[in-house]
Amino acid sequence: MLQFPRPFPTKEKDEIKIIDVAAGTGLTGVELNKLGFTSIDALDISQEMLNEAEKKNVYKRFICTQLGDQRTEIQTGENDALTCVNGLGNNHIPPTALEEMCRIVSKGKKHVLF
Fold it and tell me: Where would I find the Methyltransferase domain in this sequence (predicted)?
C-alpha cells in the first residue's frame, strides 16, 4: 500500500481539525474517517445534503452556508485542514470563496481541492 508522510507530525489524527467544504452527502468525510480522522466538520449550502451527511455519523458540526466573498461564522484559523472535493466550478463555489477558505484554516496548514 502506498504510504505518505504524516501531514501533521506533531498531532495525532484524532486531534487534527478538518473542515469538509461542499460536504454534500458526506462521502469525503466517510473516507477521512476510515483513515482515522475523527474531528471533521461539514459545510454545505444545502441543508438537505447536510441532513444526508449527518446519517454517516462522521461529522462533529454541520454548517449550512454559502461560501463566496462574505465572511462565515467560522473562526479565523479554526481548522488544521480543509477539503473541497468537486465543489469548485460553474454553479458551485465561486473563486471569490478561496480567500475565505484560506482564512478559516491555520496559517501554514493544508488545503486539498479537487
Answer: 18-108
**Beta-carbon count within 10 A of 25 CB:** 19
The amino acid at residue 14 is D
* AA letter at 23: A
Cα 20–89–39 angle (5° rounding)?
5
Residue pointed to by grid coordinates 489524527: 13
Look up cell 476510515; give the residue.
34
Provide φ and ψ at 76, rounded to 5°. -60, 130
Unique residue bearing C-alpha cell 445534503: 49
CA pair distance 63, 44, nearest whole angstrom: 6
pLDDT tens, position by position, 42-94: 999 999 999 999 999 999 999 999 998 899 999 999 999 999 998 887 778 98
Per the DSSP assignment, residues forming a β-bridge with 88 are 93
Rg of the chain's alpha carbons, rounded to an integer? Answer: 13
Find how far residue 8's CA is from the centre of its chain: 16
